[in-house]
Amino acid sequence: MRRRELLAGMAMMAGCGRRDEPRPNILLVIADDQSWRDAAAYGAKHVATPAFDRIAREGVLFKNSFSASPSCTPARSAVLMGRHVWQQEEAGVLYGAMPSEIPLYPHLLEDAGYATGYTGKGWAPGNWKALGATRNPCGKEYNSKRHAVPVRPGIEPSDYAENFRQFLGERDKGTPFCFWLGSKEPHRVYDEGSGLRLGKRLAEAQVPEFLPDTPEVRSDLLDYYLEIEWYDAQLGKALRILEETGELENTLIVVTSDNGMPFPRAKVSLYDWGVHMPLALRWGAKLKRGRVIEDLVSHTDFAPTFLAAARVAQPTGMAGKSLLPLLLGEPGWEPRKAVFCGMERHTMCRPDGVGYPMRSMRTAEFLYIRNYAPDRWPTGGEFLSSNRTPHGDIDAAPTKDALLNPALAARFPKQVQWCLAKRPAEELYEVGTDAGQVKNLVEDARYAGQRDEMRARLKAYLEETRDPRAAGEDPWQGYVYRQTEGYGASFNKSLPMDVRVAARTRKTHKPE
Fold it and tell me: Measuring CA to CA, which residue among 327, 345, 207, 182 is closest to residue 263?
């Protein structure tokens, strides 16, 4: 190891306590498709999240945490690797594969003596074995425990908390653990109308301005809130298990989501609704209770933070940085001026399987987006996709149906434009005054200086971090849409042969 890298590793481990102190347990709790605003700790009145709120109250709440990507697989790859989408190789696309040579924090901790495991949704969807990897990216799987009484349709039958209990019971006594609790909620599909049936009211729904405000959309949002509340209840059970086993105070708990809510212009977009994430941390007496942090942080920071807390050296190649100096109030933290996000390919929803490449730079005041293929439909357009629907990068839902309903669309032309239309090569939004990010300022002369500065800064950062896009290259087009364990081979055979590449649809009721 070069001297500079050794010093960096030593600095990263500063503030983690004496060498004779026990190493902390690490519990990552990650929702599937939850945007940042949908937790009561952020002031939401439309959803109850007592477990998340407890973590925030007894620990730290972040107000500006960002996923690396608005798509499941690359977002989860970033958490595991500490790398941007463009540094992940085939792990940077939906239904990709895990390169065996890129270090993952669960494996590094396992090699350092930690017990590792996961329940629910781990690294997915994709085939982690396809490129020669021999260990599950998240550790040993614990999904055998099921809810004794079946839950309503759309809810994962696996009992996350009881699987976590099993994991704790099987590890050697005194061994620190690293566990990934991956909820499959609030990912679609939903039990349509369940929010209303279980007592929620249409008036409670908070409809973003970019969506049609109709009863169907409001009801869809209520169903989404209901799944968040279910997931939060499972988090609460996991916390009680930590208390029962005496492990709560020595466990670094991180609670977040992989990407934004499964609605148009949210998931699979680089607007805040797609990548701005809830984030709360708890670590016993280590952290000052009730602190609210405004700093910009990235999900690429999780892996360096976990390694630093465990006193394990950070490997080269990670783009993120340890949050420990910020969390512990110690020297070494330099506030970020910006976070960077990206996406390449989500579903197979365009001819020849091409993606919709995007990069973004988000500061405290502005969001700048670079769309590399503005001639393509960001949602896939009318092309019949791998999930057998037009606009395939939008999950099937009543909200999508509303946008595609000619009668409703005629009443909401702006929302149809914002959600379905092609986008320009550049977008610029003032986030403080444009919560829905629908007022593109890129051609506004008053913001020309801001646009030019962010364009240049994004370009420089992508070059510095060796993004192939910055060099005019596109390796992603060659990445296969891979078969995954638990996923079938159903695909629309009417599609042209050249796009019938191993596209998959999940066999069960809950698509990934």
Answer: 207
